[in-house]
């Protein structure tokens, strides 16, 4: 969140959903950048309403996640808190507080708007913020400041932040580590297969899939295609996926070292922009991974239709094409189309 915008407007970091709304509204209508023009938005999301983790977290839900409800694991899609979150998003959209390009932007375009000072709240990976976004933002506006936005406590009183499960994170090794051999064995395991024969595209994190070429996957026209659904992964194949995804980051080890050193230097000098550290600390404090790590054939059978209908539902509600009762229709549809079977399966596999 743009800290300098908060300061310009005499506002503080929001602690409640109402304050959250008021800040986003002021970011849109009260000229937070002081240029006398109506040229800013509270926030922006991406295609399919991605990059809106902060908003959903304020309501204790994340699209695609599951949480425990009694003795079952339920998708956040059908939690009542999701209905409240959708109503909140719809309000932001109809009042022009959410960038109207939200439906068509990808992550790079959101980042560009953040850099140019068009949006006051944006979602990004911590490393991207440190390496690219904030330095680029300073070239546009040397007075720009950002501060990690911790979502207000949700209706159940908890503060949650989504935590990823993939291998794309960064690893740090303590200088006081007394078993470096084990650490190095771990890294070696990550990279032990020869990746030099793989097309460069495979080393693009967006395209990495998993498994053994010719068995689980095949290369068609230079693209790496998987023969098995991610939902059908065995634990062994999942381990390969994790390892494979990690390999894409091996070539950034040098820059990671530079990042750590730069961050440490800035901390020592008292000039730190430590969003990476904020993110780590807050992920530890508030992070709530989805309750479901393993899915099975039932989920695989229904998930595409589920996600498709979900996207139709959220788009129609947020843009005002349908009333909030479209969410009630979605929940009824969920249960009429295998929903309880999904719940039963993920509960059996994960609890
Ligand atoms: Ca302005």
Report on the architecture of this protein.
The chain has 351 residues and is mainly alpha-helical. It has two domains: 3-163 and 263-288, Periplasmic binding protein-like II (D-Maltodextrin-Binding Protein, domain 2, 3-Layer(aba) Sandwich), CATH 3.40.190.10; 180-248, no CATH class. Helix content is 47%, strand content 7%. The protein is built from 13 helices and eight strands. It has helices at 3-9, 17-29, 53-57, 80-94, 107-115, 126-140, 180-191, 235-247, 253-269, 275-286, 297-318, 325-336, 339-350, and strands at residues 41-43, 66-69, 72-75, 119-121, 161-162, 217-220, 223-226, 287-288. The strands form four sheets. A two-stranded parallel sheet has the order 1-4. A two-stranded antiparallel sheet has the order 2-3. A two-stranded parallel sheet has the order 5-8. Strand 6 and strand 7 (223-226) form a beta hairpin. Helix 5 (107-115) packs across helix 6 (126-140), helix 6 (126-140) packs antiparallel against helix 10 and helix 11 runs antiparallel to helix 12. The longest helix has 22 residues, at 297-318. It is globular and about 55 Å long. The two termini are 36 Å apart. The model is unreliable at 165-169, 194-211 and 248-255 (pLDDT under 50).
